[in-house]
Amino acid sequence: MILDELEENENPTSETITRGLKRKKVEISSRTVQRRLKEAGYQFSASLSKPLLTTIHKKRHLKWALSMQNQNWDQIVFSDESTIRLGPVKRRQWQLKGFRKVFRTIKYPGKVNVWDCFAPRGFGQILCFSPNLTSKFLCKQIYTKALRH
């Protein structure tokens, strides 16, 4: 019954499994659920986070990379941005040892974005901002500040 409840639950914790069993008139403590899951080979661990890249995205990335093989990379500025999420994002749940569930990530409120670049002449200025990164924001706010030199 515990394993059935585990499979039915999207984000299984011992508490959610215990509540599900209680709805089915089975009285069991969450600690007993934890012990039984460990005996069955499960562990309580974080899901893997993966960006939502589709097959089309991957094909377009590969096509672009192949078309740029002969580019003079000395004339290129490389840039990257990262999002730092405020608050807990990692979800821990019961999973079979050796198998990690994948938690698909989407954009959440409560974040800080960080942007920087580098080129053959050195590094750009690290910029922090909270709005979503759009092409207009990138051109008017970031490129004008970071690429002055």
TrEMBL record:
Q: Which GO terms describe its biological process?
A: DNA integration; DNA transposition
Among InterPro entries, the record links this protein to: RNaseH_sf, Transposase_Tc1-like
- Recorded superkingdom: Eukaryota
Q: Where is the Transposase Tc1-like domain?
A: 2-67
- A single MF term (Gene Ontology): DNA binding
* This protein's name: Transposase Tc1-like domain-containing protein
